[in-house]
Amino acid sequence: MRLSRRFAPVFAAAALVMALPYDAVPHARGGHEKLTAPELFGAECRTTVTGSRMVAYCHNPYPETDHVSLHIECARWWDIDTDSAPVDTAPAATVRLAGRCWKEIRSVWISHEK
Q: For residue 101, how many other CB atoms are within 10 A of its CB?
């Protein structure tokens, strides 16, 4: 009996530490890591869908070439979805991408590669 009363505060402290959320526990302030700025990359693209046709204009404001590809998913199951070959978008250049489905377009997106 006497042994358990002596360690009761220790058990209570251990239970309290186990119950604390991770963010409430102080962390060691060891080695400081160098923070780097996020790398800026990727052309800005604007798409317009009109019926079964779509047009996208992509402008690259960054100093690295971006390879953009157009992806079109058609609404009808029998209509063929299309994926274009990558188009080089040089720095400070604008490219035009266009495509169509036979009927309606379900979704359109642009992918970027370095």
A: 22
- Residue 70 region, left (φ>0) first, then alpha (ψ -120 to 50), else beta? beta
Write out pLDDT tens, residues 12-56: 777 666 665 655 556 556 555 666 767 778 899 999 999 999 999
CA distances from 106 to 7, 27, 31, 43, 53 (A): 67, 49, 50, 23, 11
- Bridge partners (DSSP) of residue 55 are 48, 98
Average pLDDT, the chain: 83
Strand-strand pairing, 53-60 and 44-50 = antiparallel
97 C-beta neighbours (distance < 10 Å), count: 21
pLDDT in tens, 59-68: 999 999 999 9
